[in-house]
Each structure stands twice: as C-alpha cells, then as structure tokens.
Amino acid sequence: MGGLPMTISGNTKWLGFSLAAFLVSLVLLPWAGPAPVSLERVLSLQPPDYPIFLELRLSRTLLGLLVGGSLSLAGALFQAMLRDSLATPYTLGVSSGASLGAILSITAGLPSMMGLPAVWLGALGGAAAVLALVAGVSSQQGQLSSYRLLLTGISLNGVCSAMILMIHSVAREHRSISITQWLLGNIDSIRYPALGGFAAVAVPVSWILISRARQWNLLMVGEAWAATRGVDPSALMRTGFLGGSLLTATAIALSGPIGFVGLIVPHLVRSRISPDYRLLMPCSFLLGGVLLAVADAIGRVVLAPAELPAGAIMALLGGPYLVWLVRRRF
Amino acid sequence: MEGRSLSGSLQARDLTFSLHGRAILRAVSLAASPGEFIGLLGVNGAGKSTLLDILAGLRAPDSGTVMLDEMPLDSIPARQRARWISHLPQGIRGDLPFSVEQIVLMGRYPHAGAWMETRDDLAAVGGALELTDCLAFRHRRFSTLSGGERQRVLLAACLAQRAKVLLMDEPSTYLDLRHQILCFELLRAEAARGAVCVAVTHDLNLALSHCTRIVVLHDGQVEHDMPTGEAWRHPTWFLRFSERLRVERSWDGAPWVAYR
To answer: Does B43 reside within a domain?
Structure first.
C-alpha cells in the first residue's frame, strides 16, 4: 500500500487467490467420494468411472460452487442494502417462501412438469409469491426502504415457517422424511441442462451486481450519503432486491435452504480481505462456492457410503465460526 | 452538461416543505454566489437541516425551486450534481467496516470511472486527508475512531469531492477547539477560491469570525440575512438564541459574543 491510499490493485492478489481456490476445487473435488474413480479410466471415457465422474461428481461439484457462490454474493449484497451485518440471503423471506412452496409440492405429491421436478417449481413459485408480497408491502411511492424491507421480510419468514411446521406435522411419514431432507438443504448430482439453466441466471445476475460494487459501498454508509455522491438509491435498491432475490430463489430451488454460507463468507472476506465491495463481492462468490463444495465433499466422504447433507456440514462449520466472530467483534 | 464548468451560484426561491402535516419551511428564499461563506443559524427545529437537504437535492420541496447556475436542480443527473454539490450529513453510522481512506475515496465516486480510481482521485484524497489532519490515522478502521476524528474524515470526504457548492450540516460538531477553527478556516479558504459554502452551526463566534454572511432561520422562515459586518453592528438578532448574549471586546479589541 505504501504512501498511496489503498486501491483495489493493492489487493488483487486476493482475487487471484480466490479464483485459484475456485478452480482447484473444481478440478480436485470431483475425485472425492465413496467409490474410487480412476483417472486413467476417466480419461479413456470408460464406464463406470467416466459416467460416475461426469454425471455424478462433476455436476455436483459445479452445483456446489454455483449455489455457494450465489448465496454468499446475495448475503454480501443484503448486508449492504439493509445496513445490517447479520443479514443473510434469507432475511427477506425468500427462503421460507421457497421452502413453503417446495413442501406444498412434496406434500401434494405433484408430478414433474416440463421435465422439471415439481419441488423446484414449487420452490420458485413460493419464492416469487413472498418476494412480490415483501416488495408490495415495503415500497412507498416506488421507493424501497431498507427498514420496511427488513421488518416485512422477518414477519413473512415467521408466517411461512409456521405454515411449514403445520404442514410437516400433518404430513404422512414418508413425505415427512422428504420434507426434513429438503429443509436441511443438500447438494446432489444434477442433470446438465438444469445446471445450465441455473448458471444462465446466476452468472449474468452476479455480474450485474458486482459491476455496481462502488455503489454498494456508498449505500452501506447510508442512502443520503449515496445520493449526494451521485447514486440513485431507489434505483439501486430495486436492482439489488431483484438481483439478490433471483440468485437466492434459484439457488434454493435446486439445493434447499442451505444456511450459514451467505452469512459467514461475506464476514470472513470483509474482515480478512477487504470491506470494499469491489473485492468483497467477487471474493465472496468464489470462496463461498469453494466452501460449500468442500462441505459437500466432506459430507460424502466421512461416513461413506452414507452421505451427510452439505447444509448440516455447513451449519456445523458455520455455527462455531459465528460464535467466535461475535465474541471477537461485538 | 457533462463538460461544462460551473460558476456555482445557487438560488432557492419560495421553498416550502412540510412533514407529517407540520410546516418545516415556509417560503424560504436564499441566493448564494461564489466566494460566499454563509453561516446558517437558528434554534433547534428551525428548519436548517431540511433547507440544506433541499439545496443538496436530497428532498424535493412541496413548492418553490432551487436553481444552480440557472439550471433547475432536479434536472441535473445525480452523478453530475454530485460533482457540483457536496453535502456533509449530520453524522453517519459509526460501525462501518471501511478504512478512513476508503470512506474518503467514496467522495471521488462522481468523478472516477465505473470501477477504479485514477491518480487524480488518489491525489484529491491525499490532499483532503492532509487538510483535515487525518493523515495519521488514514489506514485505521472508521469504527475505531473517536467522534471528532470521524467528523474530520467525513469532512475530508466532502473536500475530496472538489465540489463548487459545499453544504455542511454542523461541520464542527464533536471537534476539539483547534479542529473547530481548522474546519471553519478550511471552508473560508474554499469560499475564497470561488466555492459557495453554507455551514449550519450553533457557534456564533465561529460563524461571525469566519463567515461572510449570516442567515438566521426561525420557524421555517428567513428572519435575518445580512453580511457579517452588519451582524456585529446590530446584534439584536442574538436575542433569538438567548437573552444572556452580549457583544464584548476580546483582548485584541475584536468583537466577541459572550454570555453571562
């Protein structure tokens, strides 16, 4: 840094480090799993190793990287928008709406539509319904206020959770197990067209959000501060609300509400790398992806052939970290 | 509009503003030309901050207009407006994770490209840090600073913006005496260089010794608007603040507002 004020260029090594960690995870993690896969057989496209590697392990690693990245980015975003360091991608009710939709479709035993599992559609529908409700209630003359967003989101979270509990308690036993599994959140192998669809949403939305990094810096200080430095806060809030919700809703639809990654990764990056959103956002995306993909790899190795859900591993890793952070910082 | 330079004259005409049915401003008019440093005085709740917010474009008046160099303020795009007008808010949240330099760099947002600061931006930041006596803690986290240090950092961010109009809401709050004087000297120097400065303050001596003009707002109206020299000669407007105020002479013969 020297005598010049800190600039992003002084810290780009962290961006390189995060990108390297992301790529290394992508290359190495697919090899972890209950059944050994031989490199030689994969390279010569021989079954069963090649299909296991390609269809199961690689798609699953990619999903973990993308879901973890999307949730971490959304968490960092909502922490700036709501000016609340404990905000997560789920604070605004998206996750409980998605959960309620998914659970309704599990309980009703809906069939898949257009080749997509009913749970995904239910989750997306539920998320959209809650978002529309939150946006409608908390906007005043086209302006989204962070205070109202926060309170409305938390209230709707409560309502949806209550409904989930009620449905869960009257559901039949085998459905109850799938409900619990869904609520824990898990990364599973996924077919490539679905993964491509998710990436087609997550990548451009992330790009748009990251490209406004300096504006999130200003918004984090305050709306008036941002406005008198040349940002239109209401347009920015709308972009952030829509973009962050899209990321969260699509990620949850595929993996269930995986907790903690959207809270701890932005905090980790903020305290270890930089609070500047120009670094915070891309590093959160890359490292969030790594963390979830690693949690998933751990989950499928430690008790093999049984699998531990990535959501549970994440909570086990994330809980103690959060306690440590709270003890240190507050 | 992008490239044009600004003389920086600010004109507010007949501003009215009410909030929750309560009239905050009633037909306030105020014109300020480059080189002027206006001390905006008034008791609590007189409407000073609201007037400053409207001049900064943060709030829209119910009626009346604000013109900057003959341009209606609301017709100027936000980014362009921020290159011309800088606003110091009455305190911001103190628990920000940003470093001092990162906060001051934010003042360069309207100037810099979309992603990176240029050498000019860094020079402006360094200069503002030096002027406000913040160099010693430029790398520290904002949240670890004292109240007065934070206030100086915010002032530095406004100076780094290099605007022609500086609207400062109680810029000397929390500052120790030395830095209160430094703050008003800085603003006077900005005005001398052709800026328009408006500072809300409760310190009559600072205002009278540094400002070129005194505007007293009371109950949403401009009650007095006079050059500083006249304000000394006809000190009846003091009574608005306290009946215990008197003009005395300090040891070097200069007038001094004292209370007994």
So the answer is: yes
Give the domain range for residue B131. Answer: 10-259
Enter the pTM of the model: 0.91
Instruction: Report the complex ipTM.
Output: 0.91
Looking at the 3D structure of chain B, how many domains does it have?
A: 1
Q: Does A115 touch chain B (CB under 8 A)?
A: no
- The answer to whether B71 and B35 are in contact (CB under 8 A) is no
Which residues are within 8 A (CB) of A23 and not within 5 positions of it... i.e. 6 or more apart? none
Residue B251, domain CATH: 3.40.50.300
Tens digit of pLDDT for each residue in B160-208? 999 999 999 999 999 999 999 999 999 999 999 999 999 999 999 999 9
| CB-CB under 8 Å, B83 with A230 | yes
Q: Which of B65, B88, B87 is nearest to B78 (CA)?
A: B87
Least confident of A71-80, A177-186, B75-84, B154-163: A177-186
The sign one gets for the Cα dihedral B63, B68, B74, B75 is: positive
Considering only the beta carbons, identify the residue of B58, B116, B129 that sits closest to A8.
Answer: B116
Residue A9: pLDDT above 50? Answer: no
Q: B53 to chain A: which residues are within 8 Å by CB?
A: 224
Q: Are B6 and B81 in contact (CB under 8 A)?
A: no
- CB of B86 closer than 8 Å to CB of B55: no
How many distinct helices (H) and strands (E) make up chain A?
15, 2
**B173 assigned to some structural domain:** yes
pLDDT tens by residue, B99-108: 999 999 999 9
| Residue B65 counted as domain residue | yes
Are A198 and A250 contacting, i.e. CB atoms less than 8 angstroms apart?
yes
Q: Do B109 and A218 touch (CB under 8 A)?
A: yes
CATH of domain A8-329: 1.10.3470.10
Kindly list the residues of chain B whose beta carbon comes within 8 Å of any beta carbon in chain A.
53, 56-58, 78-83, 85-87, 89, 92-93, 95-99, 101-107, 109-110, 112, 114-117, 122, 125-126, 129, 138-139, 161
Q: Are strands B63-68 and B10-19 parallel, antiparallel or unpaired?
A: antiparallel
Q: Is residue B5 part of a domain?
A: no
Nearest residue on chain A to B81, alpha-carbon basis: A230
